[in-house]
Amino acid sequence: MVLSEKVNQLMEWASKRSVIRMNGDKFRRLVKAPPRNYSVIVMFTALQPHRQCVVCKQADEEYQILANSWRYSSAFTNKIFFAMVDFDEGSDVFQMLNMNSAPTFINFPAKGKPKRGDTYELQVRGFAAEQLARWVADRTDVHIRVIRPPNYAGPLMLGLLLAVIGGLVYLRGSNLDFLYNKTGWAFAALCFVLAMTSGQMWNHIRGPPYAHKNPHTGQVSYIHGSSQAQFVAETHIVLLFNGGVTLGMVLLHEAATSDMDVGKRKIMCIAGIGLVVLFFSWLLSVFRSKYHGYPYSFLMS
C-alpha cells in the first residue's frame, strides 16, 4: 500500500472507532510495513472472558478514554493513531514480537523501529489514562488532554455523608455532646492515617492494577516485586497489617491504664504483644520482598 492509502484507511477506521482493532494482516500492512509518516500506539491485550485477564479489562477502559480524548479533540490529526491487537485475533503478532504478557503498550514511531522507551512501563506507572497521555507526549510530542466521562459517585457519596451528619444534628439538636467524643474523632483520624500510609493516594494518582497474574503459570501476585511500584491488593494487605499493629498498641495502652481487674489486663497485654509481634513481622517481610538485600528480619523471612 502507498502512504496515502494507508493514511486514508486509518482515518476512515478512526472516524468510526477511536481504537482500531487489528489482526495480524492489518498490523503487518499498516504498522510494520513502510512507508509510514504516522505513529501508532498499540495495546496488546487479551480481552476474551476465557483468558480471565482482569487487568486487561481495566487497562482497556483507560485506553479507550485516552483514545476518545484524542479522537474528539480539536487538535486531532493523522500524526498518531490508537490501535489494539487482541491475542485471540492476532496471536501471530504476539509470536512475531516475542511477547508473552498482556496488557502491553508499545509506540511504533513514524520513523525507525521502537526503542526501549517506546514500551510503556505498566508495572511502574500504572495504566491511568493521564499517565498514558504523558508517555504518549514524551514519545510522539502529541499532547492529549484527557477528558473523562462524568463520574457522579464522588458527589453522591459527599451528599450522603452531609445528609447523615445533618440528620444526626437535627435528631440530636438538643444534645450535641457526641461531637465532642474524643474516641469517635480518634477512630476517624486513625482510619484516615492508615489509609494514607498504606498507599491509597499513590493508587489514586498512578492507577495500578489490583494484582498480577502470570500468563504462563497462572500464579497471582498481590505484592509487587519492586520498590518503585505496588498493586492495589498490596495496599489493602499493608493497611490490614498496620491496623493489626495499631490494635495491639491500643490493647497494650488499655492494659496499662484501665481500672479492670488484673486478670483481664494480663489477657489484654498478652493479646496486644501478640498482635504487634505478628503483624510487625509480616510488615517487615513485605518490606524485605520489595527492597532486595535488606538484611533484617523478625520471626519470618
TrEMBL record:
Q: Does the keyword Hydrolase apply?
A: no
Q: Which residue ranges run through the membrane? A: 152-171, 183-202, 237-255, 267-287
Organism superkingdom: Eukaryota
What is its membrane topology? Answer: Multi-pass membrane protein
| Keyword terms of this UniProt record | Cell membrane, Disulfide bond, Endoplasmic reticulum, Glycoprotein, Magnesium, Membrane, Signal, Transmembrane, Transmembrane helix, Transport
Q: Which GO terms describe its cellular component?
A: oligosaccharyltransferase complex B; plasma membrane
Pfam families xref list: OST3_OST6
Localization of this protein: Cell membrane; Endoplasmic reticulum membrane
Mainly localized where? membrane
State if ATP-binding is listed as a keyword. no
Which pathway does the database say it acts in? Protein modification; protein glycosylation
Checking InterPro entries in the record gives: OligosaccharylTrfase_OST3/OST6, Thioredoxin-like_sf
GO annotation terms (biological process) = cognition; magnesium ion transport; protein N-linked glycosylation via asparagine
The record, for SUPFAM superfamilies, names: Thioredoxin-like
Query: What is the similarity comment for this entry?
Result: Belongs to the OST3/OST6 family.
UniProt cross-references to PANTHER family, sorted A to Z: DOLICHYL-DIPHOSPHOOLIGOSACCHARIDE--PROTEIN GLYCOSYLTRANSFERASE-RELATED, MAGNESIUM TRANSPORTER PROTEIN 1
What protein am I looking at? Dolichyl-diphosphooligosaccharide--protein glycosyltransferase subunit MAGT1
Lineage of producing organism = Eukaryota, Metazoa, Chordata, Craniata, Vertebrata
